[in-house]
Specification:
The chain is globular. A hairpin with an 8-residue loop joins β4 and β5. The chain is built from three helices and five strands, in the order βαββαββα.
Length: about 100
């Protein structure tokens, strides 16, 4: 089995406020305070990180949807602080 690679749509750094807002939306919909990623081919430009590396800092949940069978949710702490945002962005190579 190969290394699972997670992709997060977009290529720009995400602020703590944006990650917190997106995580809150996920929490309301899924019950997991986190942000969406995929292990499949992204529809738009995205940056990636090995799941094993991400999981060494944040839990990753398999949350398939009807449209995206390889959808995952990276669980983030509440609140999302600047330190958390910096780490998340670093993991996905966002500047």
């Amino acid at each position: 089995m190969g290394v699972e690679v997670l992709k997060r749509l977009g290529t720009s750094r995400e602020s703590a406020a944006r990650l917190g807002r997106k995580a809150g939306e996920s929490g309301a919909a899924l019950g997991i305070h986190g942000v969406s990623v995929t292990a499949g081919a992204p529809a738009d430009p995205a940056l990636s990180a090995a799941r094993k590396v991400v999981e060494s800092y944040f839990p990753v949940h398999d949350t398939p949807t009807h449209a995206v069978s390889q959808h995952k949710t990276v669980e983030l702490p509440e609140p999302v602080t600047e330190d958390v945002a910096d780490l998340f962005n670093q993991l996905f190579g966002r500047r």
